[in-house]
Amino acid sequence: MKVLIVGAGPTGLTAGIELCRLGVVPTIVDRRETASTLSRAVGVTPRSLSLLKPSGVTEKLLQEAIPFHGIRIHHGTSLSLDLPLRSERMAYPYVIGMPQDRTEALMAETLELLGGSIQFGKGFEGYEEEGGKAAVTFADGTSGKFDVVIGADGIRSTVREAAGIEYPGFDLEQTWSIADVDAEGWEHPDKITLVQAGPGMIVVFAPLEARRYRLVSSAPNALEAMPLPINVTNIRRQGQFKISVRQASTYSKGPVHLAGDAAHCHAPVGGRGMNLGIADAAELAERLVNGGIEDYSGLRHRLGNEAVRITERGRKMTGGVNLPRRVAFRTLIGAANYVPAIKRRLGRFLVEF
Predict the structure, then answer these.
(1) CA atoms within 13 A on the CB side of 145
(2) How does pLDDT run across 126-174, given as a tens digit for each residue?
(3) What's the rounded Cα separation, in Å, for the pair 161 and 151?
(4) 19 with 25: CB under 8 angstroms?
(5) 274: part of which helix (H) or strand (E)?
(6) Running DSSP on this structure, what letter comes out for residue 44?
(7) What strands lie across the sheet with 244-247, from one edge to the other?
(8) Nearest residue to 103 via CA among 52, 31, 69
(9) Starting at the edge strand that comes first in sequence, how are the strands of the sheet with 95-97 ordered?
(10) Has this prediction a pTM greater than 0.85?
(11) Which 3-state string (H, E, C) describes 26-61?
């Protein structure tokens, strides 16, 4: 079986690693000239750690990552809830934090150990279906025929467009922002901090490495939006972005299968985007090798739809302007403070979902 993977982010790398581990060495291409140096996603969930364990990636991640032991929720400058993040029902009981570029580097190392490699600077141009196979052309003028093409090439997927798969959904009007900073003296280096900075405005502050942190906000300037004092010693990068909430109409069409952001995208609330892509890729690789590929799209579409629903609900509760939702969130926080069972259940849900 000849497999082409388009995109060498966490989703494409997971698909490549799992296929190699199962005896199929794929061709992996990426339009970028080199590996990414950007730390887009932060958290790796227990489910992802379990999926990546057989290849050895998990052991490497755990040697470097920061475990998230809790989340502190503030209303303005006032602490509303200090919530432990732990689930004893999972093989790995907590979410870990690590810059995405480092996660990708460790995955790429594992891929090479398993016999795989990445061809950077090689863009996917399009394909024609011939006898159930994909006759692919690349931007450098070369071509090849493949039994399977995996589109792991992000929100603006050229694979999805070439396959003519619709990507319905909507775009949020708000301009969100991000900042990666070095900071000294932060009192909670193993916890995520979520701040409701005002109606419709949230700020999330999460550790990436020792004294390195990620700020994400629904405001145009994450640093300015943060009401809590931070001793920032260096700004590594800042940027703005728009959020799309979309899902492909199908994840499979002929020889093409989609995974990760090529198949779905949503708000960063809950930090599940990369992890959903890892789960897509692991499922896809297993079904390609061991059978059942006809069920891949239906299964992952349902799970993707559920992830979108949960993250949208979380976004609207934590950072929406709708008064009833804001009241519902404050009521939930109050209940968690006074009822230990609710507090445990909420913390477990945030780790497991």
Answers:
(1) 5
(2) 999 998 999 999 999 999 999 999 999 999 999 999 999 999 999 988 8
(3) 10
(4) yes
(5) helix 273-290
(6) E
(7) 169-171, 244-247, 264-265
(8) 52
(9) 43-44, 95-97, 66-68
(10) yes
(11) CEEEECCCCCCCCCCCCEECHHHHHHHCCCCHHHHH
In 3-state terms the chain splits into helix, strand, coil percentages (rounded to 5) of 35, 30, 35
Contact 308, 187 (CB under 8 A): no
**Across the strands, what pairs with 185?**
none
Give residue for tokens 């950072």: 319
| Ramachandran category for residue 251: left, alpha or beta (phi over 0 → left; psi -120 to 50 → alpha) | alpha
Give me 342's structure tokens. 């609710």
Q: For the beta carbon of residue 139, count every other beta carbon within 10 angstroms.
A: 14
E-only strand ranges, 172-295: 176-183, 191-198, 201-209, 212-217, 232-241, 244-247, 252-253, 256-258, 264-265
DSSP class of residue 164? T
Task: Write out the two tokens for 319.
Answer: 């950072």
Contact assessment for residue 152 and residue 11, using Cβ atoms and an 8 Å cutoff? yes
pLDDT given at position 320? 66
C-alpha dist (Å) from residue 227 to 68, 74, 116, 196, 272 = 22, 10, 46, 9, 25
Assigned token pair, 150 = 């995996």
**Helix 323-338 with 296-319: angle, nearest 10 deg:** 90
Return the structure tokens found at 321: 């302007």
CA distances from 86 to 69, 92, 210, 220, 348 (A): 7, 9, 21, 32, 6
DSSP type of residue 262: G
For residue 95, CA distances in Å to 45, 91, 200 come to 5, 11, 26
Q: Rounded to an integer, what distance in angstroms lies between the CA atom of residue 345 and that of residue 353?
A: 12
CA atoms within 13 Å, Cβ hemisphere of 141: 0
Please give the structure tokens belonging to residue 227: 């009401």
Return the pLDDT at 328.
79
CB of 130 closer than 8 Å to CB of 40: no
Show the tokens assigned to 256: 């093409």
Q: Which two tokens stand for residue 10?
A: 């966490």
